[in-house]
Amino acid sequence: MEKLSSEDSHRKAHSLSHGGKMVLFTCKRDPAVDGSERSGLTFRSFYFEREGNAFLKATGGAASISRKLSVHVDIVTCKCAVDVQKRVKTPSILVTKKSEKGASFQYSLFTLSSSHQLEPRIEFKLPYQMKGKVCILQGPTVLWSHHNSVLYTSPLAEGVRKIPIQTPRWVFGELPIHKGQLFALGLSEPLSINQPPTIGYFLEDGQVFDGSLILPHPYICITQCMQVLTADRVDDVLRCAVIAATSKQQLVLFENGMVKDTCELPFEQAEDIQTVDTGRNGCLFVVFFKPGHVCAVWKETLQIASCWSDVSSVHVDDFLGCGTEQMLLLFRNQGLSREPLEKFLITDLCGISYSCGQGSEAPKTSPPQENSLLTLQALESRLQSGLIVLQELEREVRVKDRVLQQSIQVLTEMLSGRETVLSQPEQEGLVALWDGDEEFNDETLDDKMHETPVLSSKPKIDKLWHRITEDQLVVGLILTAESSIPVSGVSLSLLTEPGQSSMPEVIQTQSQVFWLPARSPSTPTLSSSSPAAKRSKQHIASNDLKACRLAVTAATKLAPLLTSGCVKCHAMLHYMEKSETSFPGSSPTTAALHCGEVSVDIRDLRQNPLLQTPHIKTDEVREDLLSLLTVLDHWVLHIDSPDYSLGDIDDWIQRRQGFKKIEVSPEYLLLFSPGPSAPMLLRWNQINPFQGNLSIHSSQLQMLQFLDSMLTYLPDSCFVQPVKCTRSQSTAQEFASALEKEVLSLREGLSSLLCGKDEEERNKGGTGQGEVPKPGSTEELIRCTREVWQQNVERSRARLSPLVDAGKYREIIQSISKVKMDADLAAVRQTQMTLIS
């Protein structure tokens, strides 16, 4: 690794992390081409190499700031902030230039682009020097305080702006929502009666709000640093969770402006708070203190995890590229000629630990590899399963103890001559063995059947339900998690009640298959004294595909079924089963299972609870959601934005008026307005920061209206392409194309036939008006005029009822018949899809 020169080491290097790399910024003077010196801003990025346990240089660059020797250049602060124009997070660094007189201070904000170039974004002058805390937030926006006022500037602000509120104490922050992110909190004047005690000010729109929704009034004066964890607007009311470090050596967790939990910090003068997401092991709060101390606190319990001293800076990123975050602690160097990244520690306090230059503190453990992580997950699942089995064994032991106690009590009562009252065997979870020999033989037969391999496994039915959605009847079937059948061969059909004839009739339906998460089994409760990293692992890996339940639905038109006041239908499940005794490579056989019957009474129709209360988590709401997914048309749109990221598409969809999140499936958003319009379901799946798929379940008109409003929000460089449409839509397009082809063939064939007849008449060279001979007398003139008029009459009659060639007419009729046959086939397919849907 290259070393810093002695001149560079005298200037403090500012560092930040971005994309798993460390970036160092320094200001130095370089000799120019003309022999003079110029001040410049240089940067170098480093990546961590596991094998060498060191940071290696990746890229570097520089930007010229000033050519004057009398100008002193220095770095104020640097931080990664979101660039709202490019919609990406970029490193930003604020540099100041001041002359020897010190009359004015020139400030410049640079951003590091993806092409590793320092680009100037903001330049402004101040008659004073920034003192105290200077923040770089989204925009990038620079905020600072001066004489009880807050000033800020950004590329969109067009100069330095000032908040029209003055207070001696200010706290800056950023909300993780799209609109109104940047805010400043201050204390209200004592004489202001109409204002709240804590004033909040949004920089984007200049709106004043009640700051106590973020921090209570008593904590404004003692808050040293803070971070907003979550934020949302519910009925125009701000709901947020905030973590803050106070001057009273406390780390306080606030929810909606109320104190939720506190933790006593071991050091004073907190300067910054960062969050470390370690994945399955939970989250950590890392607090950096001005004297060079660092403290890590578990987020779930607010218990101190570890502390360090003599630290120059701390950074949070995925330095190892393993998918989770770690914290990098850079320790202060004793010598001036040493590299800043030569004495460090990378850890997540959950098994990952890399250190260098720590003397006796060697690396504790290596980060687990991918295979090790998979092994740990498998062992954890086996441990949870073993705990469940242990609970079942303990339950059986308790039952046996109760049976023994009852047996002793029965014997005692029999010897005493008292009447004995026995409890039912089913109440104790036992099987009676004295009810008869026939039942005993059945139990023995069942035991023998369990000892032999099962030839075929039938799916187990969990629930059968039905809904009336729009003008269709939807019948659904939910299978248990133990049912292992291939999804490709599963369908549901409906049969009518057998009437006068002995055979029931099959109802034309459209069947679909959905995956549902399995109901989580009863998990053991771990002790509260366990570490937080262990308590966060209480969930069982039931989200695996093997533990999911299968839901099958069938939809049919309701009007043809309502021939009477009550309708009864039988549900038949069709699936593919493969016997264990079959030969390898043999194809599975189809099987059918009667799942029960549904009775629909039109007088008992009710509204779907999903449309009324989508925020509840019940089986009825999940069934309503499946009904809507079955009935509504489905489109999938692929959105590609090569120039701008799509990170705010989800927020834009949720901000639309009327959209509500469905709690049973949070990935779906529901738009329901009372009236004739049908409900609308949306699901946004972001593939990467620049690509994503948008699933729309609605009518075609609603889809077009929503797509039109979304196109006005997306950048002009975005590409929107349909990936999937409904079957009825594809057949309708095919039918329309066939009809259009039929009309075009008929028009072109008749035109060619009539044009050919006119051409034939011209080739014959008949006498026309230009071939009238010059008359010699009045009688000849009248005769010639009469002949020309007679020819025109005959020609007009020929055009009205032309005589065409038989061979050409036969060819045209054959081609038109072929096109018409294709149109008839498309019409048949469209009719079938209409009847099914």
Description:
The chain has 837 residues and is an alpha+beta fold. Residues 1-10, 360-370, 435-456, 520-546, 580-584 and 766-772 have low confidence and may be disordered. The protein has 11 helices and 42 strands. Strands 38-39-40-41-37-42 form a 6-stranded antiparallel beta sheet. Strands 1-2-3-4 form a 4-stranded antiparallel beta sheet, with no helix packed on it. It has a 4-stranded antiparallel beta sheet with strand order 5-6-7-8, with no helix packed on it. It is flat and about 120 Å long. α9 packs antiparallel against α11. Among the domains are: 1-162, no CATH class; 374-399; 461-521 and 541-726, no CATH class; 728-836, no CATH class. A hairpin with a 2-residue loop joins β1 (14-18) and β2 (21-31). It comes from Crenichthys baileyi (White River springfish). One of its GO terms (cellular component) is Fanconi anaemia nuclear complex. InterPro entries: FANCB.
Mean model confidence by pLDDT:
77
Kindly provide the radius of gyration, computed on alpha-carbon positions and rounded to a whole number of angstroms. 40 Å
Spans with pLDDT under 50 lasting ≥5 residues?
A: 1-10, 360-370, 435-456, 520-546, 580-584, 766-772
Distance between the termini: 68 Å
Q: What is the helical fraction, as a range of percent?
A: 10-25%
